[in-house]
Amino acid sequence: MANENFLSDFVSFKKFISTTLIIIIYAVGFIYITTKGISTIVENRYSFLGMGSDSSERLLAGLAIIVVGNLAWRIVCEAAIVIFRIHDSMTAIEKASQSDKQ
Fold first, then answer.
1. Per the domain annotation, does 9 fall within a domain?
2. I want to staple 47 with a disulfide (CB 3.0 to 4.6 A). Which of 1, 11, 38, 52 is the partner?
3. What confidence category does residue 53 fall into, taking pLDDT thresholds of 50, 70 and 90?
């Protein structure tokens, strides 16, 4: 019975899979941003804004990519999840109000 409800909710777009998908995309993005930050620290080929020749500049740029990049990525993903959580809350309120009327 619950499986039928899930399937009908899924097909009618009442149940979203986007929250789980956003979490997976966040993890992939986190790994990518962190890898790019580490490679900026380690490798000398990343030269942007005149940086790249001095190891301390590469260290600061890499740490900035890791910290600021991951923080910004987290905020973007959380904002997307909040939208879907609001929808879930509104759906729960709607179901509760319908059951109260019966």
1. no
2. 52
3. low
